[in-house]
Amino acid sequence: MNCKTIRDLKRTLDELNVCIPFSNDLSALAKPLMLDGKTIHNRIVYQPMEGADGHFDGSPGEGTLKRYKNFAKGGPGIIWVEAVPVLPEARSNPRQLYLHENNLSVFQKFVEDMRAECLRENGREVFIVIQFTHSGRYSRNQGVLAPVIAHRNPYIEKMHFKPDDSAIIGGDGLERYEEAMGKSAALAEKAGFDGAEVKCCHGYLASEFLSAYDRPGPYGGCFENRARLFLNCVDSARANTKSVFAITARLNIYDGAPHPWGFGAAEDGRPDLAEPLRLVEILRKGGMKLLNLTMGSSCQFHIIAPKDGAPENPLAAIARMQNLCGEIKKANKEMHIVSSMYSYLRKFSPLAAAGSIAEGISDMAGYGRLTFAYPEAARDIIANRFDENRVCLACPGCGYPCRVRGQNM
Fold first, then answer.
1. Which domain holds residue 104?
2. What is the pTM of this model?
């Protein structure tokens, strides 16, 4: 991005005929939110970004501990801990975190240390969510690809990961996944987390089922069937935890692939929010109060993480996220909505985050890549001392360790 001033950026947006709201008043980012009696002290979320640096037993490694200690120092309202599979075969690489009974005490200390670090540096505690997943199509066994898929998807398979029909998961495997989600949520509560997420985005297993239009049986075809796995996992997590423990989701509202190969899209590939709106309404009526929105998949990474040289202008991708997120928020005013895709905007990102909240597009702003480059960003944004020399440059560097260890982020 070559824009030097906010005026340059707005001029470029006008030329693209898209809108990203900005606000010079950053005070909204410092306002607290309440969630089930707990305080989220500001509106900045550090999104789940995998480091692939855990121990082989799934416990946080030295690099993991250092990274999250720095995140806690940085003072966000929420630290959203990176993807943790609920089954050993659901790991995307052998260094991915994995919570189980035998390392529960390690995760308890992991959480305690984050809280203590935030309290020491910022005078308050931090709200901590853990993301639970099944890597699905990207699962690996001992570093070797061992995909588990909802259905055959030619749109994805023409680009990469072309398994055969034996990779399609059956009913017993799905029930095992649903049960494991409940057990994992219960462990997360014991470990001291404030909430657990059922991951349903970026082409991982639960997300892939949302576009399983051609799958026969109770988990495919009509909307109710395609949403069954995700909603059953949410119900399983909720049934195994106390009411004050937040059950949430990171949800794709637009996959980027055309119907019938992507969720939230029309046949021409443009967004269609009819089913995403229906799904979020079910979540809200079921008691979900916090929802983290995103879009895209690994075969269209520029939709998840806009960058220069992508098939579309990154600013257009960010504007689309803001527009779709605003439609979800408008229909679900009671929910705390987290929006995404701010890192590419670099020094202008705090203005966009504040603008999103001011315009009622979202309640919180989620930072992903920027947190690796600048873990103190939240604290500095709120103190109005954001250092533009430390911003993310939207290069692929933060994903490199994961790729060389066999993970697709």
1. 6-404
2. 0.95
